[in-house]
Queue: 4 jobs
Job 1
Amino acid sequence: MTLTRRAALALPAALALPNIAAAQDWPNRPVRMVVPFAAGGSTDVSARMIAPGMQKVLGQSVVIENRAGAGGTLGSDAVAKSPADGSVFLMGTISSHVLAVGLYRERLPYDPVKDFVAVAPTVLVPICITVHPSLNVSTLAELVALLKANPGKYSYGTGGAGGSAHIAAVSFLNTIGSTAEHVPYRGSAPMLNDLLAGQVAMGFDTPALIAQHHNSGALRCLAIATDEHSVLMPQVPTAREAGLPDYKAYSWFGVFAPAGTPEPIVTRMNAAVRQAVMEPETARKLREMELPPIEQGSPADFARFMQSELALWVPLVRASGATAD
């Protein structure tokens, strides 16, 4: 073997040595976790709940930094362009890493797959189907029958065009083969106010938002669109139990790193997230807030999940006509 050939073979390993050494010492300073949404929302709350558990594993502080704007894409883009040295991570969501691909058809400033490394999922956020009592339906089957008999007659509200609740509604209507008028709001709170007032007949949002009003009788939650029952509304059936076995709708959160982050850092961060999320007391509190922990796996498992989510939801976003461009 020639000297040139030996040098060529040795070069990749030599280039990798600084990264390996840096990863072995990681973390030697506080770690930033960017939440691309405002403080107080479910993404922020869940990140702050698991941060202490991550700190115990890592031996360094995990500092939550809110960088809200543009549906989660502003903070996500900032992390995509950050140093890939384990100093910063992103608490991404289905909105920032899946739905945005369909919404920002021309100008999404990052590629959710190429510009990030999937580290670990954290929690699932179920979507539920809720109606105003004036609609005179008590079960999901009755709602389906009503909508199929009256396509386009009724309206439904969501917290915004192109959000997870809107796409959940589009998926629901596609599943049952009917139509309804979408009324998008600037957030879940104003949507809820109009749903309570009967200004819209149906609403798609999280059980945490709806539970108090369902339990008081002001609204009727007809189904939870995941496999688990709601902790706050345990009597409400899942969509499968209510007669729609193929319908699921949810959001999810998960930790991402900038592309190029050394594998040893990604592996250790994955272990920190897994232990923090599944710590019994933290998991219990998350479930009480209707943020059930996602079954944990490797970074490769999360990357495969991401690919399947893109294949599932992006066509629905584009079919909905919603756009952020």
Note: Residues 121 and 305 are 9 Å apart (CA to CA).
Job 2
Amino acid sequence: MKKLLIIPALLLALNTSNAQAQEPTKKKKEQTKMELKDPVCHMKVSKDAKIVTTHKDHQYAFCSESCKTRFVDNPEKYVKKD
């Protein structure tokens, strides 16, 4: 009888462990949704970044004023061509 109780307990423990292992993945996806990439240096920038500019009706965020300046001086170098 004790063996029968151990099996469900082990299955429950494995299931809980698996759910906890997946949790960081969910957090990473949530973080990715809340981040942009600086078009000049490719660093991650939050969507509420203070250093931004607009080019051809698209807003770009930057990690620093230096990256923004480089972008403004030559935006076509950093914008993907469709």
Note: The first helix runs from residue 2 to 33.
Job 3
Amino acid sequence: MASPSNSSTAPVSEFLLICFPNFQSWQHWLSLPLSLLFLLAMGANATLLITIRLEASLHEPMYYLLSLLSLLDIVLCLTVVPKVLDIFWFDNKTIRFSACFLQMFIMNSFLTMESCTFMIMAYDRYVAICHPLRYPSVITDQFVARAAIFVVARNGLLTMPIPILSSQLRYCARNIIKNCICTNMSVSKLSCDDTTFNQLYQFVVGWTLLGSDLILIVLSYSFILTAVFRIKSEGAAAKALGTCGSHFILILFFSTVLLVLVITNLARKKIPPDVPILLNILHHLIPPALNPIVYGVRTKEIKQGIQKLLRRLKT
């Protein structure tokens, strides 16, 4: 039998995810609404992608950006939810060292990619309303392709050090993560090394990326509102605002859930520890489930495309 000193420094090869440590008895009940939200998110985003792919009238830059958002939502859902349901249904709490840090990378990078995509969509609406005559020459297919490369490169490269820094830490004996997913904060606190730089890097990069996107989104919509209020025709103003309505609602979903998550983490001493864990999961489920539904309900072209797709399936 190994001595205590040796066992305390033995390297960790896997972690244990302990979801809701204070309320494990009702995990099976929680799995039902999570499963329904997961199926809704996957089905709605897949339907939206297929509709945009098959409907020629939707082959426009705005809908390509919406497709990018749906792809990001699908990847985020597949990264987080299946493992959570695996824990709930089969009590399979173990996750490999490499799989944990891969999940961490995807969650950090794709979350900021979504934020960046919202920012580019806000710019798209700004050009459409404030400079309508220039819109066809500015927002082109080439612009969308370059924007997609920018979204992936900026956020992928800047968030990649987060899981790399965490994976380089020494994990001695503790391997129990009191969370359903491998967040950087939950994992790094298990290390027997100093994690100050790790946490500082995530804080600076996270708030720089998300904060800059939010500032640019607010600026875009301030210019849009200024331009709309100058429109004397009441019908034209309502139509201009209508084109921004769906996008604004999506940003509201994304920002509200993220803001609530941040507040609960800051006030974790006054809030049960299971609440931030649940909100973290819902943040990867609620926006992906609602995003395609909002666009499908509010956008006539997408609604007509979905109706055509359903008629094709029937025939």
Note: The longest helix spans residues 196-230.
Job 4
Amino acid sequence: MEALLTAAGDRLGAYHERLARLVAVDTGSGQVQGLREAADLVQTWCLAAGMAVEREAVADPAGAPLGDVLVARRRGPGRRRILLAGHLDTVFPPGTAAARPLRMHDGRAYGPGVSDDKGGLLAGLAAVEVLAALGREEYAELVLVCTPDEEIGSPGSRPVLRTLGSEADVALCLECARDNGDLVSARKGVADLEITLRGRAAHAGIEPERGANALLAAARLTVALDALNGRWPGVTVNVGVLEAGGRPNVVADRARMLVDLRAWRTAEYAAALAEIRRLVAEPAVTGVRAELAVHAPTPPWEPGPEDRWLTELAGKVGAGLGVPVSHTATGGCADANLLAEAGATVLDGLGPIGGDDHSPAEWLDLDSVVPRVALLAGLIDEVARR
């Protein structure tokens, strides 16, 4: 265990340098040039670590390019296939990297994506290097996957993740630990819903009876959807956007709603989605039709016995390193959900400690890098040997 901490410490300087270079590139979802530039950097570092690298360009369902999925592999003599999963994309617009380059202050690093997920991704690569340096490579194959579209539900990366997840015995996901140090042992499922309502325009003063008000139908549907909160334990339905109408003297002939559905359990997720479909099919205003589109549906990650075994094993490795390990469930979804759906045993939050993701205050705890890289490397080693 001491050797793991020492080897992780030996790579801290390289980690800082890589983090600065990666954070200096704008990689918001859909910013293909920056995402490919960042993938080029990771590819160079993976090749230097003795990994074989494959790249595949991916696109969204409409055909718009999203960047490249990078898959790096290192083979060993063992029997277990272990997957490390991280992502390159962030939520920030072009120009953010120049406006907020990596800054280190009072033991923390700040910058776009420093915690979500560039710091975690680099911790995965550092763990690969630690095990290689120590000659502790008892796995059959260690795979690092870097996706360009996790922040928008991985619409282009899903086929690759499905394949990798089905091949892996264990998937260790590199989202950073919660701000209190917790690993992530379960995630809610999420569906992004788009509802389009079409009515009939009319003069609001002269002949309103000839109209069919899509705005009114959307308002009533909003109330009906909000009433679903609390019907099933842990299910939340949030109407985040309602757009309708153009002029006050015209009966609105069109409306659009964007809705967020989340649930802890697959059965409740399916039941809530079915009820939403029923409500959409029965608009509350005569003459108004509604259509529902479900974008990037991501099922809940419900931990089973194997997932709980992996969480307990992480705790034992942490105890040997003197690194406290606790875990929690979170309402946010990630690629861990998709890997669990594909059949892998999953544990998430294995990057360094970080917080304030998706905000200008996003931070990474620099003192946590060495112990968390050692924890990840130790967990890989234990899984491979068992």
Note: The first helix runs from residue 2 to 10.
